[in-house]
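User: Design a sequence. Structure:
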């Protein structure tokens, strides 16, 4: 199941895609699709999983990065 998911971490207030899936710190696992990012944010997933508030502009940057790691 985890093979189909992408790990995202928060570092210095920015979201980063953890391509190796083993970076230190808190991470959130999600599908690399824009609809999943928005649903995750709408349901408070970033606050719950990463324990920080992620601005909408940073989520837009994350959507662009996800297109780079699509399998």
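Assistant: Done.
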């Amino acid at each position: 199941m985890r093979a189909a998911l992408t790990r995202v971490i928060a570092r210095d207030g920015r979201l980063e895609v953890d391509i190796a899936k083993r970076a230190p710190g808190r991470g959130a696992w999600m599908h690399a699709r824009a609809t999943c990012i928005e649903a995750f944010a709408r349901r408070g997933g970033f606050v719950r999983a990463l324990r920080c508030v992620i601005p909408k502009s940073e989520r837009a940057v994350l959507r662009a990065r996800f297109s780079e790691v699509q399998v």
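The chain is about 40% helix and 20% strand. The helical segments are 34-42, 45-50, 56-69.
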